[in-house]
# Entry
Amino acid sequence: MNATHPVDASAMRRTPNPREGWIKVPAITLSFWIIKIMCTTVGETGADYLAVNAGLGQTVTRAMVGTLLAIALFMQLRAVRYTPWKYWLAVVLVSVVGTQITDLLTDGLGVSLYLSTTIFALLLIAIFVVWWRVERTLSIHDIKTRRRELFYWAAILCTFAMGTAAGDLATEALHLGFVRGAIAFGALIALTWWLFRLGGNAVATFWIAYILTRPFGAALGDLLTQAKTYGGLGMGAMWTSALFLTVIVALVALEHYTLQEASPLPAADATTHP
# Structure
């Protein structure tokens, strides 16, 4: 779902309004959705690899990734405008943390997937309601202030946690399995895109698709990593994570190069606020 207008290079070169600044999120293109889905899969496979395969354990993994996420979000919030590697680094880490939150509730505290999915759904609705009442918009094209950006990242973290719970609910508790789970969520994403093309609300369809890509990516990750005896393809968490991270890095590097060519900024301006 490409809900953005074409990039106007001359407009991007204008000095930003100090009250608004540069838009801090990427354009919604096909590349955006490919990277997003791969980030969700890495969130699923990466958390498993660090905690299990690398032998770090859940506690160490949570502390390490949580610290890295705090650093990544600090850099993202300090950036003047959208910087691809900073934004997508934060998304990858949010994906891992979202997975860990759900795993902690389910495996560590024994909270049912039905309850955790409901809790995260209600929390996400609450974030959207407060965001709308304060800012009167939920459009990502208007992420130009620090407060809107904080609302945005709160919503993103919640979508990843809810998506993880919903994906596990569908594939495990409801016994859809990895293949049927991936097909079901993929079909819902396609339906959302179709509704958007028919004139559906761009903001609503974006957030619905964004939420659905998380359980789709989780089901895809499980399908690729799990052993064949459990219905997977047996690629393993390490190789799946490495493959997807390589593609993510390549696409983000290409996007960074494209933006630099379209709108070069002095190095100091592209890093931090004045």
Summary: The longest helix spans residues 146-173. The two ends are 35 Å apart (CA to CA).
